[in-house]
Structure to design on (456 residues):
């Protein structure tokens, strides 16, 4: 492969607004980052911060107001809507799938350049320590990475072990708050962000050491 | 070569990916397990493997033959039976009658046969033999509605076995069973495995870990792990779970 990044979120902006004459922006997500190589990226942030919207923009189910999402160099929003999940696939939380209007018919769009998704976005997977599935899930994330895929794992930690999982498996982090992203190359750097520690609250007590 | 092979199965409902590139192989005379959390795609997988749904892509092969997309009754004719969750029982009929009605020679003759069943000692004998295999000897003349929940589950399996399949698929056989009935069911499966290749789809990990020779773990419509129970158990999170505590 050339030096095309696996995922390029290029100056993406998504706004939702209310009102007709006096239009007011109620939600404004901005994202601009690249992930060059296969890996496991942890995404955290409060509810309503824009994590799921970010995933929808990356998989092409939701259209950005501005900017492009390139998966292996291919603009996902220019790919046939029924083939976008060949590039980037969104594993929804509890099957809560939002549907968006399609902008153009598929015959005007391009086919996907890959057959098995290159980017796998896991939206708040259920981690339950009692049944032991976590171990298989974590090994699966690692296997996808080792096979050259990008894994993006979104977790809203509410138990210390959720943080333990993120620390164990993720190689870099993105923190989303009020529609703004901050990146951290490792867990310790992530915890140096005061917004992150405020968000995690008591959970970091046992983890920061 | 495995008796039953599924290769690169894909299935979508509307825009939702339900199976994503599933490849599985079930060896003859083994018990294979498929497990996964709720909503993982287990039942869709079961339905694609047994012909109820056609995969969007991929191939299903049984004994070297391509059976992809064949309707369930044609798949059954190849020697593959599936056990439904007690949807198949006729409550007003006795256990023996339920089995006799599932015998292939009776089904082949259709409606006209039902008039002569009383005089067909051969069919009754074969039916009684199936009942004995599933531990219901002595219950021949008990109406299905009077059987216990566990016995009804066994009778379901008996109906599937009546056709003498080479391969038997069981969908969530422990659902609704208490611990005693689950243990009885496990013993029944150990008994019938001597003559039929079995695939069990199950969310009860303990049950599968005790019974299966190989297990595939399905989540997000994919095989996220597979191996023998011992290799799957050799995982720190599994060891730390309830399952590990039980093992």
């Amino acid at each position: 492969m050339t030096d095309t990044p696996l995922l390029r979120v290029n100056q993406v902006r998504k706004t939702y607004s209310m009102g007709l004459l006096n239009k007011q922006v109620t939600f404004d997500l901005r994202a601009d980052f690249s992930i060059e190589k296969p890996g496991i990226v942890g995404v955290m942030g409060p509810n309503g911060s824009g994590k799921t919207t970010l995933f929808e923009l990356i998989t092409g189910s939701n259209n950005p107001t501005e900017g492009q999402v390139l998966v292996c160099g291919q603009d996902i929003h220019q790919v046939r809507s029924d083939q976008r999940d060949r590039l980037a696939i969104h594993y929804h939380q509890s099957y809560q799938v939002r549907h968006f209007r399609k902008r153009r018919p598929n015959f005007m769009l391009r086919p996907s350049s890959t057959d098995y998704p290159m980017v796998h976005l896991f939206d708040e997977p259920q981690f339950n320590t009692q049944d032991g599935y976590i171990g298989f899930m974590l090994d699966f994330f690692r296997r996808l990475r080792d096979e050259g895929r990008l894994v993006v794992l979104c977790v809203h930690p509410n138990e210390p072990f959720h943080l333990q999982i993120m620390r164990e498996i993720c190689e870099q982090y993105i923190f989303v708050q009020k529609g703004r992203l901050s990146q951290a190359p490792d867990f310790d750097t992530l915890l140096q962000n005061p917004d992150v520690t405020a968000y995690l609250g008591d959970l970091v007590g046992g983890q920061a050491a | 070569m495995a008796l039953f092979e599924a290769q690169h199965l894909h299935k979508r409902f509307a825009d939702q990916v339900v199976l994503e590139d599933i490849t599985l192989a079930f060896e003859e005379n083994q018990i294979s397990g498929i497990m996964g959390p709720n909503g993982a795609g287990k039942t869709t997988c079961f339905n694609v493997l047994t012909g109820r749904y056609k995969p969007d892509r991929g191939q299903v092969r049984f004994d070297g033959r391509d059976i992809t997309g064949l309707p369930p009754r044609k798949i059954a004719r190849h020697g593959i039976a599936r056990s439904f969750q007690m949807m198949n029982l006729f409550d007003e009929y006795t256990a023996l009658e339920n089995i006799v009605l599932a015998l292939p020679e009776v089904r082949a003759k259709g409606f006209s046969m039902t008039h002569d069943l009383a005089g067909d000692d051969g069919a009754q004998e074969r039916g009684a033999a199936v009942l004995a295999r599933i531990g219901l000897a002595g219950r021949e003349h008990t109406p299905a509605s009077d059987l216990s929940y566990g016995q009804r589950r066994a009778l379901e399996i008996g109906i599937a076995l009546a056709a003498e399949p080479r391969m038997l698929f069981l969908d969530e056989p422990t659902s609704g069973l208490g611990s005693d009935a689950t243990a009885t069911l496990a013993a029944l499966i150990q008994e019938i495995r001597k003559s039929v290749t079995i695939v069990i789809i199950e969310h009860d990990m303990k049950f599968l870990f005790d019974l299966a020779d190989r297990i595939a773990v399905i989540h997000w419509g994919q095989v996220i792990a597979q191996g023998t129970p011992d290799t799957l158990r050799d995982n720190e999170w599994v060891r730390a779970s309830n399952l590990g505590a039980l093992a």
